[in-house]
Amino acid sequence: MFALVAAVIALIAVLMVMLSGLSVGLVRDGVSGLQNLPVTSFAFARGAQTDSAFSRSVVDTTAVDAWRKQPGVADAAPFGNMLVNARSDKGAQVDLALFGVEPDSFLSPRSMAGSGSVPRMGSW
Q: For residue 107, which of 6, 33, 28 has the smallest C-alpha distance?
């Protein structure tokens, strides 16, 4: 009887470790694009903290200009993101994260290897 209870507790502990690892991986996968941006801070519209939906936060570009002029701010640039679902030409579902940045801002992607440049919208 004692061995059975110990085995059940051990299985529950193993499942908890597996589920916590899975949840950490899913969270990291969901925000890795944002974590790898060369920024120290993001600004959101009022209310984004209460409903935890930063993707619905809209900040006017005039606010970006105002933040750019603040002391201690090296640069500020607008940033947009959208999560969409699509299908490949073979019908497989694909989840996409689209990021919008000003072409020449510090957020604009840079080519890390090779001599090619990162394609801009409309140049594909």
A: 33
Name the residue among 45, 99, 105 with its Cα closest to residue 75.
105
- Phi and psi of 70, rounded to 5°? -70, 145
pLDDT in tens, 91-113: 899 888 788 888 888 888 775 55
How long is the chain?
124
Give the number of other Cβ atoms within 10 Å of residue 108's Cβ. Answer: 12
| pLDDT tens digits, 23-55 | 888 877 767 777 777 888 888 887 776 666 677
Give Rg (Cα) of the chain: 22
Q: Is the pTM of this model over 0.85?
A: no
Q: Which two tokens stand for residue 79?
A: 């940033």
d(CA 78, CA 100): 8
Alpha-carbon span 121 to 26, nearest angstrom: 28
Q: Which residues contact 110 (CB under 8 A, 6 or more apart)?
A: 118
Residue with tokens 């801070």: 41
